[in-house]
Design brief:
The complex is a heterodimer of chains A (247) and B (144). Chain A contains 8 helices and 9 strands. Chain A has 247 residues and is an alpha+beta fold. Chain A has 2 domains: 37 residues; 205 residues, Alpha-Beta Plaits, CATH 3.30.70.20. Chain A is globular and about 45 Å long. By secondary structure, chain B is mainly alpha-helical. Chain B folds into 2 domains: 32 residues; 109 residues, no CATH class. In chain B, α3 packs antiparallel against α5. The longest helix of chain B has 23 residues. Chain B is globular. Classes of the chains: A alpha+beta (247), B mainly alpha (144). At the A-B interface, α6 of A face α2 of B.
């Protein structure tokens, strides 16, 4: 087992080197990343990949909610006029140090844990973790019991209280089921990046970085290895896939 | 009380109204649903297979898609919806609220309730008009 694992690692390093060479000859950084992540439509996701996100809080501006509005736009989330029960896949949280008065602002969404408690408590198996680390709700089997909402320490999940119409074709949502950040799984499967990360482009702060945490050559892995980053409530040992720098 | 003759006459008239209210194809004895034609040419045997098995094929595909991320066009609900789109009076695809919708044309007839569209969109994206060549239209949003 151990031998095969090290064998895989060596092979991955070799492939990563190949990708780097291709990048030099192509001289095209953007296509290089999507090329490395793209999968065929008929190909199943594999545990060789672990999708994650790195959020640099120092670049996250107070009062900027471009990531939140991009998420709502992408997934067709409209306010029902009832803020207490409106779905909240991603939200901006303000932190304030009472001693110094320093404030920080950061986006919080489903942290896509490696050991998700929402999956542990689900009585129907609707809450599940995909092999590539994305934690999702299979709404076909969700009975709306909301155990997962109680179990999640990040308050990342919402319940749909009202009838919906005109949902996005790639983001089905319906009354009576629990939902949460899907990491824009429909975009990832097509080789893209989540809508929030796209909205937080360099011109908008560039605080969010999306990538494969299992690939040592990926930009996110290099930054996680180089800088001190933190997971929220790391003491719970859920190993979230979303990491924060400057927290 | 009305005489028996009146009652019989009323019953016959009632039946006539019922039968003529249903969509009848040609001069069939049994009224059949009027199913809208697909926009793209399908492979041979597609209609027959789907008539019998669409629920099983789509349920299988749904699990493959949700759990394994397999998003092939075949048996995907999005592909069904785009190819079987029906234009309303405004040349835009109708939603499941219209009795002309492809799924409803048969499900209404068979009195089988379909709950897919409580969550799923019952029409192609609003940006895609039926005036567009369909292959482009399908490609556009299947790429998502």
């Amino acid at each position: 087992m151990k031998n095969s694992e090290t064998g895989n690692l060596a092979r991955r390093k070799f492939l990563a080197g190949m990708a780097g060479m291709a990048g030099v000859s192509l001289a095209s950084g953007v296509t290089l990343f999507s090329f490395a992540a793209a999968k065929e439509p008929g190909q199943a996701v594999s545990s060789k990949v672990r999708w994650g996100m790195l959020i640099d809080i120092n670049k996250c501006a107070d009062g900027c909610d471009k990531c939140v509005s991009a998420c709502f736009e992408e997934n067709g989330i409209d306010s029902t006029g009832n803020p207490a029960t409106d779905p909240q896949w991603i939200r901006k949280v303000e932190l304030r140090d009472p001693n110094s008065g320093a404030t920080k602002s950061l986006p919080v969404m489903c942290q896509h844990c490696a050991e998700p408690p929402c999956v542990d408590v689900c009585p129907t198996g609707a809450s599940f973790k995909r092999k590539d680390g994305i934690v999702l709700v299979d709404k076909h089997t969700c009975i709306g019991c909301r155990y997962c909402m109680m179990a999640c320490p990040y308050k990342a999940r919402s319940f749909v209280h009202e009838d919906l119409t005109d949902q996005k074709p790639y983001a089905p949502r319906g009354k009576g089921t629990v939902e949460g950040c899907t990491l824009c799984v429909h975009r990832i499967d097509a080789g893209g990046i989540p809508a929030c990360v796209e909205a937080c482009s360099d011109s908008a702060g560039g605080a969010m970085l999306f990538g494969d945490l299992n690939d040592p050559a990926s930009e996110i892995s290099r930054r996680v290895a180089k800088y001190a980053t933190r997971q929220i409530r790391a003491d719970l040992r859920l190993d979230p896939g979303v990491r924060y720098r400057g927290l | 009380m009305w005489p028996l003759g009146y009652k019989l006459l009323l019953a016959v008239l009632g039946m006539a109204v019922l039968v003529s209210g249903l969509p009848v194809q040609a001069a069939d004895r049994v009224p059949m649903p009027k199913v809208p034609k697909a926009l793209e040419k399908t492979e041979k045997g597609h209609a027959k297979l789907m008539r019998l098995k669409h629920m099983d094929l789509m349920r299988h595909q749904r699990d493959e898609t949700v759990h394994k991320g397999i998003r092939t066009k075949q048996y995907s609900l999005k592909a069904c919806i785009s190819c079987h789109a029906v234009a309303g009076p405004d040349k835009q695809p109708v939603s499941i609220t219209s009795p002309k919708h492809f799924c409803r044309s048969c499900h209404d007839y068979a009195a089988v309730k379909v709950d897919c569209f409580q969550c799923h969109s019952s029409k192609p994206p609003s940006s895609a008009s039926l005036k567009l060549p369909l292959t482009k239209q399908i490609q556009g949003f299947l790429r998502r």
